[in-house]
DUF917 family protein
Amino acid sequence: MREVRLSDVDDIARGAAILGTGGGGDPYVGKLLAEAAVEKHGPVPVVNIADVPPDAVVVPISSMGAPTVGTEKLPSGREAVTALRALERVMGTRATHLVPIEIGGVNSVIPIAAAAETGLPLVDGDAMGRAFPEAHMVLPTLIGVSCTPMVIVDDKGNTMVLDTVTNQYAERFARAVCTEAGCSVVTADTVLIGKQLRDGLVDGTLSLARKLGRTVRLADEPVASAAALLDGRLLITGKVTDVDRATTGGFARGQARIEGIGAYRGVRMRLSFQNEHLLAERDGEVVTSTPDLICVLDNETGEPVTTEGMRYGNRVAVLGVPCDSRWTTPEGLRLTGPRAFGYDHDYVPITGGTK
Amino acid sequence: MREVRLSDVDDIARGAAILGTGGGGDPYVGKLLAEAAVEKHGPVPVVNIADVPPDAVVVPISSMGAPTVGTEKLPSGREAVTALRALERVMGTRATHLVPIEIGGVNSVIPIAAAAETGLPLVDGDAMGRAFPEAHMVLPTLIGVSCTPMVIVDDKGNTMVLDTVTNQYAERFARAVCTEAGCSVVTADTVLIGKQLRDGLVDGTLSLARKLGRTVRLADEPVASAAALLDGRLLITGKVTDVDRATTGGFARGQARIEGIGAYRGVRMRLSFQNEHLLAERDGEVVTSTPDLICVLDNETGEPVTTEGMRYGNRVAVLGVPCDSRWTTPEGLRLTGPRAFGYDHDYVPITGGTK
């Protein structure tokens, strides 16, 4: 992938929303901003990790907040560039590349818009290989890279710079500020230099998102094609019978219940989420857990179903998709395994399901 | 007053705790820090507002939080200098003077410790002429001076820099961060240049605090002497019969009830506070309200009684003391009158009581 063209944005947003496991925010508004920016400024150059110079200054730009709020409280479009410029002032150096912090929903397209507006190239990767709800849940934490300085910008023009002693504190303070700002802010943080990208990013996820989004749009059997592309397992197809959702502590938290249809008649699934889907239990047994991906798709169209968009009656397919292998190391699981989210359960590899 | 000597710190802390109207935090730990710093580095030079050069860079250093927490969660002593240095980096210039943001409790002595440690002189004044619970409730807000850049430092070494579009936003975000940090942080903010001091500060309040503290310590009738010095009115002497206090939203909020003794037998008073005492009602009628000062003293010793230290059975005298006249202008009342704290009451000048 050499560049993001106007026609790519929609596919990237769709694919990233699937990889975002229900979180990362509804990409719709972000997609419009990115499309407008690419239309105005032209295609965004994309660089492979292997081609980024070792001294490059690579800045992730993302939004933080509860997706339930993001659908109603719209970004102004200026925040990303404001955050980037403020971070550059704090660092005393200019960014050379931008990159998504996660390949999920709105956070896959915000960097496209920012790259188009600033003329900076985008690195083909992200810091999670999926979406996670908390700022410190990134591969850079595993290699000792600080999330701070972190710049936070809200829609009113308020700006905050955090400098914390751990990445967990960065998450805590950023979340407090985000909540006070109405659960929706844009951040620039977790700066990587070029030689850290191999260990600090998952390679090629922007390309993967585009390919996935295109596959779902064009395939005759979108769900099966998506599963094949992602090496995922189909855990159930069914009907959403209940969604219990609350926006608390700056997150959209809750559970959804699914009753199987077709070959899955009589099977019940419970999904637990905190912005992202984190646990999938089938008939009371955990069959996929964070950090592996739990992707919920519309059973007909393969379109991603977000945790905030899930409704009673949705016909969905749930895929279990293996995460980047660095997440299932002991250090990775300490940061993003089920217990990191308060679930009293160890990580279990994807169990059962069909290829 | 030319300097703060070791022997002055205790009097300043006592006097400021009285002027702090029950808030500003228990000065005990701050006093020990200030005494240790003055003992180590020598007396702190004090400069009158009239003698500060017009281009001076005057930095208020203070703590923020709930006094109920401040009595248990102790500052490390490093936070003030850390905050000052971080603010200087953001401003791109060095501070020439320090000043208390409020003349209340711990915030009157933290700047003494910081001045001793940095060798900077202290300006004889403060930005309120009392204590108020919220960061934007300062005279600089009335003259259009921004509270930001505001540096916030916690006891773990986490640092945050706020840059907000209004001073109210600075308060909101700082309070959110403060609450997340455990309700106790140190801030450097609301920088004034020398020529703004006349309008942005209340003149001579450090000297006043020392004089008041000394008067209470030495006088035969401490309460009457304090009242005379402050041009205050005695509203009641009585016994605390009930204190209803909760630490919510980063503040110590509540009410206290007092039953009159001696000449005030049969009279009842209710005090409402949010860190500071804000409303005094005598037999159901408001007799003193913010921004005027409601000072609660031990009826025997004249020692200040803080809102977090007030207990059932305390014998107290309550004084109503006129505030700086800039607070009773329409703009001043909008910022610090009873309605600014959610009380459904207009400002009433001090009513009744005895000189």
The CA atoms of residues 90 and 149 of chain B lie 8 Å apart. Chain B has two domains: 3-205, 221-341.
